[in-house]
Amino acid sequence: MNLFRLAGDMTHLFSIIVLLLKIHATKSCSGISLKTQELYVIVFLTRYLDLFTRFVSLYNTVMKIVFIGTSFAIVWYMRYHKVVKQTYNKDEDTFKHYFLLLPCFVLALLLHNEFTTMDVLWTFSLYLEAVAILPQLVLLQQSRNIDNLTGNYVFFLGAYRGLYVLNWIYRYFLQDHRARWIPWISGLVQTALYADFFYYYILSWKKHEKLKLPA
Amino acid sequence: DKDEDQHDEL
C-alpha cells in the first residue's frame, strides 16, 4: 500500500459519501444517472467475488464491503425511496448502458490474465468500470444546471482512478516492477473519459461560475 | 504468485 493508492481509495470513498449526502440531505437525485450507479453495483459485485474466499488485508475487506453496501444503497434510494425516486428524471438518463455489458464481457473473454471465472469476471469489472461513467457524463451534458454536490461527486470519482495511475507508476518503478497492463489501460481510459469534465470543472471553479458542460 | 498479486487492489 502506498500513499497514492490510499489517497485514491479515500477519494473514491469520499465521492460516494458526497453522493449519499446529496441524496440523503436534499432527498433528491436530480442530475444523477441511475444507470451509472447500476453499472457500479455490477462492477463491485464482479470485482469482489473473492470477498469471502481470499483475505488480502482487513483494509481491503472492509473497503470492499463499504463499496458494495453504499452502491446498493444509492441504487435502492433512486429506485425505491418514495421521495427520492420522484426526483429521478429518466428522460434525461438516456444512455443505453446495457450495451456496455456485452462488449466488456466479450473483451474480458478475449483479453485476461488467466481463463478462470474469477479472473475473467475481475477483468470484466475493470473494463466495465472504465466506461461506467458514460451515462453520468451524458446526463451532465444534457442537464442545464449541475448542482455543486453532483459536480464534486463526479470530480472525486474521476480523481480516484487518476490517483490509482500514480499508484501503479509508483509500484512499477519503486516496488515490484510488475507490468499490469489490464488495470493500467482500463484505468487510463477511465481517467481520460473525465478529461473534458475536469477541464470545465476547474475552469468553472477558477472563474467562480456555475459548472456547465458544452452540449 | 500471479493471481494472488493481480487482485490485491480495489
TrEMBL record, chain A:
Gene Ontology BP terms: protein retention in ER lumen; protein transport; vesicle-mediated transport
Keyword field: Endoplasmic reticulum, ER-Golgi transport, Membrane, Protein transport, Receptor, Transmembrane, Transmembrane helix, Transport
**Mind listing the GO molecular function terms for this protein?**
ER retention sequence binding
Q: How does it sit in the membrane?
A: Multi-pass membrane protein
Could you tell me which PROSITE patterns the record lists for this protein?
A: ER_LUMEN_RECEPTOR_1 (PS00951), ER_LUMEN_RECEPTOR_2 (PS00952)
- Please give the organism: Spinacia oleracea (Spinach)
Q: Which family does it belong to?
A: Belongs to the ERD2 family.
Where do the TM regions start and end?
58-77, 98-115, 121-140, 152-170, 182-202
Task: Specify the protein name.
Answer: ER lumen protein-retaining receptor
Extract the Pfam families matched here. Answer: ER_lumen_recept (PF00810)
Q: Which GO terms describe its cellular component?
A: cis-Golgi network; endoplasmic reticulum; endoplasmic reticulum membrane
Q: Which domain of life is it from?
A: Eukaryota
Which locations, inside or outside the cell, does it occupy?
Endoplasmic reticulum membrane
Q: Which PANTHER family does UniProt cross-reference here?
A: ER LUMEN PROTEIN RETAINING RECEPTOR
- Determine if Transmembrane helix is one of this entry's keywords: yes
